[in-house]
Design brief:
Blueprint (H helix, E strand, L loop, with lengths): L8 H5 L11 H9 L11 H5 L23 H19 L4 E6 L5 E7 L7 E7 L15 H12 L3 E5 L22 H16 L4 E11 L1 H9 L12 E5 L4 H4 L9 E6 L7 H14 L5 E6 L13 E3 L11 E3 L3 H19 L12
Parallel strand pairs: 3-4, 3-5, 5-6, 6-7, 7-8
Antiparallel strand pairs: 1-2, 2-4, 9-10
Length: 361
């Protein structure tokens, strides 16, 4: 168990036990007094299933309304993804929460979700965005990570989900200005290297077939990790980056140490595609042998692979416009991007595309 002290633990426990350091009997007692039932701590079966006080799946809980409402198609899709993915996670024989030592003495908490397949299998280190791994309750995995884990498991790929924010006593940082953040892509780069070292020691992992997968802040971390200009760059079979911020990589010498797939939204006003397109053009000019694929999807904003509807977030100060940023899914772009990712991982990890997982736009 991670033992890093967190300031304000009692304050957070007043709402829910949202961090490893707050997982004690006092927090559980407070939660019980508020009628929340068992507290779903990260990595617990309860968190994996996403259940509420009644024990019923959160995704399937109907709204308490006196009159009937027509079901929302997006909500039904999200509920389906949560139920299918959660069932797979709950059924994983050795799903567990692990702590990985970091060079600075911290312990990196992570969810280890091995695929139910025999022999040494490929693995993916999946790097969360600035919103972290969890839903608003601070303990249940967001639908994106459940859904992608199910997809990777279907291809026989193990998944490691590091919690870079919670391990440092932080919640979501999306609303924090870049210059005021206490953890960035450079800091998380060490998390990637430690996670890779941990995976290579696992007998069920094929150490020669490990890939990185990242979204937004996690995708920017991925770019920092596979920069061949660094002596301690990540040695991986491939990397998939969904809508990263590429300005930092573009501002310095950068070369690829691994095959890279970049998946971008043409209308992204949070991490716009232009810097990434410039980075790829420069990389191809300076490193003609580089294996890099860039796909930009039209009519797509930040988080286009989500099942959530597009919305304007006025609380995010780091976008192109002062009014805020747009975030949400595009079903056609999502389906195309997932198929692109499947082909890339099949090529770099030697896996079969997941059966029965084709997305319909």
């Amino acid at each position: 168990m991670m033992a890093a002290p967190l300031e304000g633990c009692a304050r957070r426990c007043g709402r829910a036990a949202t961090s490893v350091a707050c997982r004690d009997t006092t927090c559980r007692a407070k939660a019980a007094q508020r009628g929340e039932g068992a507290v779903a701590t990260p990595g617990s079966p309860l968190a994996a299933r996403g259940t509420g006080a009644s024990g019923a799946p959160l995704a399937a809980s109907p709204p308490a309304a006196p009159r009937r409402r027509r079901p929302d198609a997006g909500a039904l899709l999200l509920a389906g993804a949560l139920l299918v993915g959660s069932a797979l996670l709950a059924g994983a024989a050795r799903a567990e929460r692990v702590d990985i030592p970091l060079p600075d003495g911290l312990r990196l908490a992570a969810h280890w979700l091995p695929a139910p397949a025999p022999g040494a299998r490929p693995a993916v280190v999946a790097l969360h965005g600035c919103g972290g791994l969890y839903r608003r309750d601070g303990s249940t995995l967001q639908a994106r990570y459940v859904d992608y884990t199910a997809r990777l498991h279907a291809a026989g790929v193990h998944v490691l989900l590091p919690d870079s924010l919670g391990s440092r006593g932080l919640g979501p940082i999306c609303t924090v200005r870049h210059g005021e953040r206490t953890v960035g892509a450079e800091g998380r780069r060490g998390d990637v290297l430690a996670a890779l070292d941990w995976l290579r020691q696992r007998p069920e992992v094929d150490a020669g077939r490990i890939a990185l997968l990242g979204w937004s802040h996690g995708a920017s971390t991925l770019l920092a990790a596979i920069d061949a200009g660094r002596a301690d760059h990540a040695a991986v079979a491939g990397a998939v980056a969904f809508y990263p911020g590429c300005r930092a990589a573009l501002a310095k010498p950068f070369s690829l140490a691994a095959p890279l797939l970049l998946l971008l939204g043409a209308d992204d006003d949070w991490t716009p595609p232009a810097p990434c397109e410039s980075l790829v053009a420069r990389t191809r000019a300076l490193q003609p042998e580089a294996d890099v694929v860039l796909v930009t999807y039209p009519d797509s904003v930040h988080g286009f692979d989500s099942r959530e509807p597009v919305r304007l977030r006025t609380d995010v100060p780091n976008g192109v416009n002062r009014t805020g940023v747009h975030q949400g899914g595009n079903p056609r772009a999502r389906a195309a991007a997932l198929a692109e990712m499947d082909r890339f991982l099949a090529r770099t990890l030697g896996t079969e595309p997941p059966q029965g997982r084709r997305e319909e736009p």
